[in-house]
Write a structure and sequence with these properties.
This protein has about 325 residues and is mainly α. It is about 55% helix and about 0% strand. Strand 2 and strand 3 form a beta hairpin. Helix 5 packs across helix 6.
Amino acid sequence: MTAPTQHEPSAPRDTATRAASSTDALPLHTPVIAWFEANARDLPWRRPEAGAWGVMVSEFMLQQTPVTRVLPVYEQWLARWPRPADLAAEAPGEAVRAWGRLGYPRRALRLHGAAVAITERHGGEVPSDHAELLALPGVGEYTAAAVASFAFGRRHAVLDTNVRRVLARAVTGVQYPPNATTAAERRLAASLLPAEDGTAARWAAASMELGALICTARNESCHRCPISARCAWLGAGKPEHDGPPRRGQTYAGTDRQVRGKLLAVLRAAEGPVPQAALDAVWDEPVQRARALDGLVADGLVEPLADGMYRLPGGP
């Protein structure tokens, strides 16, 4: 899944408005949900045994990271920490270690912080209320809505990049959504929510899956799309994107790459490592020092006496 974005937590509360919006959107809801029922991937966080904690772990891991990379780490994580309290009992550095090469390792620290808060505030059970989820450390609007929707069947607009792309094409008639989520997108997503909670949760999952498998950023499969006959972008002849250039991601030679190499040394070590071991992973000293300083500032690395470093809270 790609990077999540901000969204409105729910549609308008007025019952008549909700019913009218739902009726208008039926031509989208029915075929997309039917397609999802027949074609959804069998992913472990979608199984009943995953529970709310499994859903939350998956949502943290899937931010800006594809499913294929998440699957093995997710399975290992849940085997080691099947409940929030299990993770909360460990040092935060163990979460960073287990995160492996998923990237953006601050997510591991945030998930650990959420586990601690769930254990202390909610008796070890992931809360179902959107506001209580949002109050957890490291949980933003997207994650709160996703967990409430996917784990508890609540009615929320779960507006990630895949869903935004589906709505941009099918409803707005443009190839790509804006680089940053707009208020207009939030209003549109809210207006399209089905009135019934369970159907809204299925719509959230179905529209996300449609964007991940069919309405992809490149090489979209319009001939297999269940709403191709209703798609405004396809109906307009698939006009090319004419907005700001799409942001691409680079990695080689960046501070992100250096940070990853430094963390790999610390994850592989059973205890603190000397500065010399970190110096060996990158030749350019200024960039290496900047990357290490950034890791320390982010709480991912702890400096010790005599030039030694360790993962946070480690031995």
